[in-house]
Amino acid sequence: MTKLATAITAGVLFATTTLTFPAFAEDVKIMDGVTERPGDNPVVPAGKFQKPCGWKIGMSHFGVNANTWTVQVAHESEGAAAAVDCIEKFVLLDAGFDQKKQVADIEDLIAQGMDAIIVQPVTSTSADASIEKAVAAGIPVVLHTGRIESNSFTTEIQGGAEHFGKVMGDWLVDAVGNDAKIWVLRGLAGHPEDTNRYNGLLQSLEGTNIEILVEEHGDWQYDKTKKLCETLYLNNPNVDGIWSSGADMTRACVDVFKQFGADIPPISGEGNNGFFGQWIKDGFQSISAEYSPAQGAAGVRAAVALLEGKELKKHYDYNPEGWDLDKTRQYYRDDLSANVWWPTELPEEKLQELYGRN
Length: 358
Known about the structure:
This protein has an 8-stranded mixed β-sheet with strand order 1-5-4-6-7-8-15-2, sandwiched between helices. A 3-stranded parallel β-sheet has the order 10-9-11, sandwiched between helices. It has a two-stranded antiparallel ribbon with strand order 3-14. The chain has helices spanning 68-82, 99-111, 128-136, 161-176, 192-205, 222-235, 247-259, 273-282, 295-307, 325-331, 348-355; strands at 7-8, 34-36, 43-44, 55-61, 87-94, 116-119, 141-144, 155-159, 181-186, 211-217, 241-244, 269-270, 288-289, 312-313, 315-318. Helix 4 (161-176) runs parallel beside helix 5 and helix 6 (222-235) packs across helix 7 (247-259). Helix content is 37%, strand content 17%. It starts with 6 loop residues before the first strand and ends with a helix.
């Protein structure tokens, strides 16, 4: 897939607009399944970042072309921005999983005078100083898809993490029993989402005798994980179950077991169309943890709410339940490629354009 354009013009510029009375947090719909974090959760006051129409919104994406999910996050973000008339310009910069590039990207967005900046951090520390600079300049920062060590951002939408890993881990413990031997397939080393998903698995394993035979990073990529699983299988095919941190890695390992004519052990999955097709066809034991790429659209929606003068909370969580095979069947589309992820906010026309098989 070609790299996405780094900047798009979305909607029509309105030179002036009448400012409305500030709205409160309950008026803002961030995304299905997203809720305010319970407990200590500061309020971003209504009106604090309100501006007339003609907004410029920037986004620092940790790595657009890392895998099919990250590509769709960019599409979802661009689609959400294009649907808002008040957004004059939406600029998406690709850090390519490079910490120094992300620092430069955020500082570039500050220099361009963005009215709001959305950040997907490369690591838990890579964006901290730049986010602090943006906030000091009066620019609200929306954080999602990875926690950071600094608390200087304006609002965050955090999904997956420990909850995601534990949804899959709890299911796997039930599937294989307390004395099983498992493989653990992790994502990109150093990325906060990988670390926190893994921590969720460890919570599930507490109090069991389950042994992790091997723990490897497949970077959430199909090709790398297919080679990895081939090596693991040839070294020792006797595994009771597999905890996989992402669906592209799950698909790769399933294909390896089929390639060797072996039974597919219980293996965790995720909301990817290609994985759904495998699961439905082959009927192995699995669960689909939900991690919608529409979090990209949610980040845009939060930025828009701030610029409209609406009240938000500082912390939002996205912790949905896992999907079983019946729910998977409701979403699977054989007319779309393996690369689309569910649930999505992309309209049917865009789904066909980007992922249609014809």
